[in-house]
Design brief:
The chain is 20% helix and 31% strand. The protein is an alpha+beta fold and 154 residues long. The strands form two sheets. Strands 1, 2, 3, 4 and 9 form a five-stranded antiparallel beta sheet that branches. Strands 5-6-8-7 form a four-stranded mixed beta sheet. The radius of gyration is 16 Å and the shape is globular.
């Protein structure tokens, strides 16, 4: 997820998102957004899914000058077991979270205050004027709110 009002626009789906450094390494494939948020699928997941569908490994060619290709946005400092635990708990409670007014998305990401802590991320449509009642934690996993406009596939 990229929080910016100028990062993407309608018609940008399928665009490769690269790291913001001298290396410009692939990090995600853009698929949706709002006026304030862009969402991309982590490139490692994209390559894995495409490779599985094709029955062979898929990768980028060329040289690398950093580790951006293997780093996953929001997950770079998260232990795999923390991601897995938060994902399972999110899955168990997802339907109840979506049933709350203004909730338009649910995911797993890193805590703003502790990048090694996995959190359940709840996307709230700020245009409705309705503030959903959300728990601070679900089964010990912290809940992080992200306010955005409606998210649409680009």
């Amino acid at each position: 997820m990229i929080n910016s009002t100028t990062f993407s626009a309608g018609g940008d789906s399928g665009s490769l998102i690269v790291s913001n450094d001298a290396c410009h390494q692939p990090v995600a494939l853009l698929f949706a957004g709002s006026s304030s948020t862009t969402i991309g699928n982590p490139i490692g997941e994209v390559l894995t899914k495409v490779g599985t569908a094709l029955g062979e490994s898929v990768s980028f060619v060329g040289t690398t000058c950093g580790t951006a290709l293997t780093a996953q946005a929001d997950f770079s400092a998260l232990p795999e077991d923390a991601i897995a635990r938060a994902t399972v708990i999110k899955g168990r409670h997802e339907a109840r979270l979506f049933a709350r007014p203004s909730v338009i998305g649910v995911g797993v990401g890193a805590s703003d205050s502790n990048p090694s802590e996995a959190v359940i991320v709840v996307y709230v449509d700020q245009t409705t004027g309705i503030e959903p009642s959300l728990p601070r934690r679900i089964n010990g996993v912290r809940v992080k709110r992200v306010y955005t406009d409606p998210i649409i596939a680009y």
